[in-house]
Amino acid sequence: MSEPASRYDYQFDPSGDSTAARVCRLVGSGHAVLELGCAAGAMSAVMSGHYGCRVTGIEFEGPAAESARRFCVRVEQADLDQPGWAGGFQQGGFDRIVAADVLEHLRDPLGCARQLRGLLAPEGRLIVSVPNIAHGGVLAALLLGDFTYRETGLLDRTHIHFFTASTLCRLLGEAGFAVDHLETVDTGPWHPEFSAYWDQLPPEVRDALAQNPMGRAYQVIVCARAASGAVPEDADPTAGMRARQAEWLEAWAQALRGAAESAAALEALRAELDGSRQALAAMQASQSWKLTAPLRYLARKLKSRP
């Protein structure tokens, strides 16, 4: 049995909810597409066969590039970390540029993104997906003192840069793009990749982290256009997400403050009880307590008579 051309070779349902299916739907039909890091052509096959796009691919690994040629009008073997890789392509020649799970593999993702701007047609769109390092499973692993790389997944051993929704949008803004659309692929924090860590957390910690809005997303997908000028600082596509995050953090802080106040009140009650016990012990040890013992005995007897 022959080895696959790429460890990123796979098949997916174009109508499904996977990251690849969502990215292809954002690309749409009948476009000239440049796909960065096309691997063996899994997404190229869907964009060309299902959506009727004309796909040009760029791939670093030779065997994967050769496999992708089945689905692309052209595949260039190139290193996206090199400054001149875009020189062989027509300026403004692509309606869509796709970087699906690519930027996290690069040493200089900002430099790569800056080269993309000139390749887009005037009304073109850049579609990017990245793993979300703020995923709750990663937080669970970190809380247990672990951060283990894997062959594939969010902590793929070839990931060099890590992104959140905010840092991805910030990088694209620095590269001259304005993000028009943002969506997340939510798996919940108990994704199988991290379930062993999640199960080890105390239930109270799991319950708190399960409410973390930014921790539910396994991947982030954005669609961006070339900005005509400087991107306004208030044009933040993650504003709603960050507002929900702030609300969750405040609710968690209030719960912690309430727990701390309850603990302080309980400690005060314990101290008061200890003080009362000490006062009672002192009174019982006093001379007057001993002298009045017969009177207390007589009072109990009289009280017990019918």
From TrEMBL:
Protein's UniProt keywords contain Methyltransferase: yes
Q: Which GO terms describe its biological process?
A: methylation
Q: Which Gene3D superfamilies match?
A: Vaccinia Virus protein VP39
Keywords from UniProt, A to Z, are: Methyltransferase, Transferase
Q: Does the keyword Transmembrane apply?
A: no
Q: Name one GO molecular function term.
A: methyltransferase activity
Top-level division of the source organism's lineage: Bacteria
User: Which InterPro entries does the record match to this protein?
Assistant: SAM-dependent_MTases_sf (IPR029063)
Q: Which PANTHER family match?
A: TRANS-ACONITATE 2-METHYLTRANSFERASE, TRANS-ACONITATE 2-METHYLTRANSFERASE-RELATED
Identify this protein by name: Class I SAM-dependent methyltransferase
